[in-house]
Known about the structure:
Elements: H1 10-30, H2 33-42, H3 52-63, E1 66-70, H4 76-84, E2 87-91, H5 108-115, H6 122-141, H7 147-163, E3 166-169, E4 172-175, H8 178-181, H9 184-192, E5 197-200, H10 203-206, E6 219-223, H11 226-242, H12 257-264
Parallel strand pairs: 1-2, 3-6, 5-6
Antiparallel strand pairs: 3-4
Amino acid sequence: MLAPSLLYSLEDHLVWRRLYSRMFPRWKQYGNKHFLAGIDALCFDPEQIPQLEDVNRFLCPLTGFKAKAVDGYVPAYTFFDCLAKREFPTTVTIRRRDQLDYLPAPDIFHDIAGHVPMHTDPAFAETLVRFGECARTAANLADTANLPSIIRAMARFFWFTVEFGLMREGGEIKAYGSGLLSSFGELQHAIESPEVQRYPIQLEWAINQSFEIDHYQPLLFVVEGFDHLFSLVDELESWMKWGKLNNVAPGEPLVNESDLRSFIHR
């Protein structure tokens, strides 16, 4: 792969600038305090796409995490195992100008501006590591009959927490999920819209709840803090060992062959 510094055109940097400038006020209003502290700590340049080595120079001393460049789809086990090693697979491409409001696949704005500021928080970082360890537990169980259900349960949990999670902060609800924090429209919608159902997270509900990626999420779950989230990951692993993830509700997300093989042939 070419170094990220060789990948970006003036147009790419203009897209980053537009995304960053319109998101910043919404981060201040709807983002949680840990995310906002992370934005400050990473010293992003609002005018141009950051280089991963610069991001890591600020990030690694805080939690040991680093952004790891990838240029395409990363199978599920590979992705989760990177978290256990304090690496975050980071897409290095950026969306086109006509895709500012929605992109079905991650890009560098979603990954770097949406995910990585949360990785500066020690409690959240430890939760990601713990989740990666759960993936290793799933792989070690090595029961191919039950593995699709376990992977589906893990994907749903990750979706409703790391990607689209809400948290209590004082008397308010704030966003910590990267799918919200990288979306201009959905961030406000998630916090303010009466159409969104917001419930205290229950593990059994989250792992049995399907989701679709091509519209605003109608149902979101709220955690009390990152200690609470860490305890839920512990519980998820316990349920996995007890067989309670072997028959979760069918539906999205579907487990593709690449993801399944990644757990079996890790």
